[in-house]
Amino acid sequence: MEQTIDITRPALPVFIQQFAESSARAHPDAVAIRDRHGDLTHAAVWARSGQLSSWLRGRGVGQGDRVLLRLRNSREFVLLFHAALRVGAVVVPTSPDLRAAQVAHIVRDCAPVLCVVEGDDAEFSAEGCPTVDVATAMAKSQAEPADLDEAGRFGAALASPQDVAFLIYTSGSTAAPKGVVCPHEQVVFAAGAIAERLGYRETDVVYCRLPFSFDYGLYQILLACLAGAALALPESASDVQVLKEVRSAGATIVPVVPTLATVLAVLATRDRRPTAVRRFTNTGAELTAEHSRRLRETFPDAEIISMYGMTECKRITISGPDDDLARPGTVGKALTGTEVVVIDELGAPVAAGTVGEVVVRGPHVMAGYWNAPEETAKRYRPNQTTGATELHTGDFGWLDDAGDLHLVGRRDDIFKRRGVRVSTAEIEAAVLTVDGVREAAVVPDVPSLGLVLWYAGTITADALRAELPGILDAARLPDRILCRPELPRTAHGKLDRRWLVENIASTGRDHG
Amino acid sequence: MADQNAQWDPAFEELLRPYLDESIADGPLSGDLDLRAAGLDSLGAVELLVGVEETYGVHFSDDDLTFDMFTTPATLWNAVSAVRGDTA
Fold first, then answer.
1. B42–chain A Cβ distance below 8 A for any pair
2. In-domain check, residue A140
3. CB within 8 Å: A239 and B43
4. Total count of domains within chain A
5. Looking at the domain assignment, is residue A91 inside a domain?
6. Can you tell me the ipTM of this complex?
7. pTM of the predicted structure, to 2 decimals
């Protein structure tokens, strides 16, 4: 297992924990993190995360151990992220918005040796795992040495590039979220390939409002390190203040999902003062032509980069700046060094312009799902000829003559909402746990209604609406709840969601 | 708290209602209704902000702008009144 890694020249990192050291050496005095407490330099991030590494080691956290971080986007998250990687641990980022039952599943699934949570986290269900609040972690680590010895600096050993760096939990077609196993090698490749397209500079300030529990949010930490750029973190949980924060942070790069793009465009119509934003990058869901138009109208100096990805391989395609103007609907080309193919039902590649399933090959394809060999085998399949692992996305699209990918649809049961991948099965499973609910069917994106839940049972819609925030986070809460005496079934006995949507006017009580 | 309803004009309620769940769309609007629980999300708050500013010809400065002002109909109306300089 001996590696030939020259840690005196970290310009080309092999392990993720080297990113922070690399930026600390190359840009020691430049701002690494900007938040409501002020600025932290790259050198300070390296030193402070070293103290946290010492503290983690003192608590027995070592190679391969899972460390669950249930924290908002904060400097503490970034420091603990680097610290955990530096002791060779596996970072499990989770949203503080997840409900007790959701996070309990994750804790049981990955068995962390340590969970770090917000001080006011009343929802967290530790399932017997050692848990510490973030303020205590920060305070206790203050007295620890920042300079680790060689082994402690990068983990017990810079063991293998195939060692796991993160588990990122994401919803699949089953009711329970699954952890995507992200090894160092794949993450480092993906971060490098994304960096090449996005062109972050040392002078950039990246305003990262997308949560670190969402992989595109998490990768902003790495992308900022690679460029020596500053990462600006949100000061307020409220979107009402987003534009004010973008301006006060001096943000030049803003990663968005369509909702955030809309919020920014609306806020900018009432406050036309200039910003420093030069580039928006979009992922998570399609930034439609209308989204882009509004963003351009209100941020005339900013370019838009469209992307497409999934946690299972991090990123699939990235467009050039403003490519959508020439090729509407494009999500760009495959990352350099990777391949996107579109296949028919029999698995054969189709011609340009023909719609089929999007399949991905390359060094960014992650190592499957944690503890879920069957789900892994469905999604990650060997190529019939070469034997190389291919990721079957379940999304449908077509390639144009230039090799740009255009998406036409996602699988029915999975959708992105507020930047989170959500499955209808998971919401229905949670709704069915409520007393008085007999059947439940969920359909995302019903025109003008949004995420609609139909149910049958004895509970009233108002009472059910009151129960749901206790078991589902905001990304999974229905916009409309409609009661029916019973839910329609297809000939095969499956819930007939299509009938429900087509008969919306008569499928439940009024919806205003 | 209930008396605060009397202080706002009908246009204010018309601005607010589209952002609230249908379950409370038809009943009387209470001044201390929890707007987030009633369905007002981030994007709704931002759109409501623009609507309120246009309707009342006011502009909230960066310092005035907080999510707390969207806590209840009363807090929002008070914020509007404050920035209008209404004391009547």
1. yes
2. yes
3. yes
4. 2
5. yes
6. 0.87
7. 0.82
